[in-house]
Design a protein that fits this description.
This protein is an all-alpha fold and 319 residues long. Helix content is 68%, strand content 0%. One of its GO terms (cellular component) is plasma membrane.
Length: 319
């Protein structure tokens, strides 16, 4: 059995037994490997230690239970913490705030009414666990305004001439192209730029994010035109993103690969996973597995906990 298949089985086993006492020894034995060998395999494949992954998933699943109204102490004990304070310390280290904040969101939702699951991702955004997203079916102009607002609030840059130039090029290049959701294709490009702004990427990376699909989607715009209108660096980032699959081994082997292009590819995958429901359902499992096998390790290396947490949860939901 290939290692990536073993890892998928391992992740599923962890999810199915998340409230049990999960140790390196018991998981390794279940997967049919020695403790040392499986620990090494897991770190090599996932770029994070096995027990660090287990701890992260326990804390996230505990967050879900608190959001559904369970008492914090009950949740702490269920997920293997002996005391309320021990759980709170681990939770605060992971998310930067106490679990009582999550419980407060639950109380607020009781008064507001509505279905928790219908607005689950927005709740996670409010709790600062996920990067902020946008609603589907927004017009390009509205999304672009949200992009500018995000850039301003994160104090990334304040001269929007080049960004507007890129936005207009993206509108023109993707004119007539549609996503499976029925939206204008350019909305995907703008959403990728918004995610990059949430990640506090620099101006050139956000612009490259806006234009990241102009080659792959055969818009007729060339990299030479991008270089002449913007910069060689932006053209190179777009080229790296377009040829990501061919150059993926360079990332894994820690060879030269622009980290800004990696940011764009992660933002691209995150938005695609956020809108996976519009894809043919037969491909959900394929995309989820691809996300686990390729993008989990990259997100772990990139050390953006919000992005990694959301990618984890989206992929595990559809695997």
């Amino acid at each position: 059995m290939k290692y990536n298949e073993v890892i998928l089985l391992c992740l599923q086993y962890i999810e199915d037994n998340i409230t049990e006492k999960l140790t390196v020894e018991c998981i390794s034995k279940k997967m049919g490997y020695s403790t040392y060998h499986f620990s090494r395999i897991f770190r090599e494949q996932m770029s994070v230690s096995l027990m660090e992954y287990v701890k992260d998933r326990k804390l996230f699943r505990a967050t879900e239970d608190i959001m559904l109204g369970k008492r914090i102490l009950d949740v702490a004990i269920e997920y293997g913490y002996e005391t309320h304070s021990g759980f709170t310390k681990a939770f605060r280290r992971k998310y930067g705030f106490s679990p009582t904040f999550i419980h407060a969101i639950y109380i607020q939702r009781l008064f507001e009414g509505g279905d928790f699951y219908m607005k689950q991702n927005k709740v996670y955004e409010s709790a600062n666990i996920y990067l902020k997203g946008t609603e589907n079916y927004k017009e390009p102009k509205e999304l672009y305004s949200f992009l500018i607002e995000t850039i301003r609030s994160n104090k990334i840059f304040d001269d929007f001439k080049m960004l507007e130039k890129a936005y207009n090029l993206a509108l023109s290049a993707h004119k007539g192209q549609k996503r499976k959701s029925g939206e204008d294709y350019v909305t995907h490009a703008i959403n990728v730029a918004i995610i990059l702004a949430e990640m506090e990427a620099d101006e050139e990376t956000i612009i490259a994010g806006l234009l990241h699909d102009i080659i792959e989607e055969k818009t007729g715009v060339t990299l030479k035109e991008v270089e002449e209108s913007f910069s060689l660096k932006i053209a190179k980032m777009i080229d790296d993103v377009t040829n990501f699959n061919d150059r993926y081994s360079k990332i894994i082997n820690k060879e030269s690969f622009d980290e800004h292009a990696i940011m764009i590819k992660l933002a691209d995958r995150l938005h695609n996973m956020r809108t996976i429901e519009f894809m043919d359902s037969q491909r959900w499992n394929e995309k989820a597995k691809e996300t686990i096998e390729i993008f989990f390790p990259i997100a772990a290396k990139f050390n953006n906990s919000k992005l990694k947490t959301e990618l984890d949860n989206l992929a595990l939901k559809y695997v």
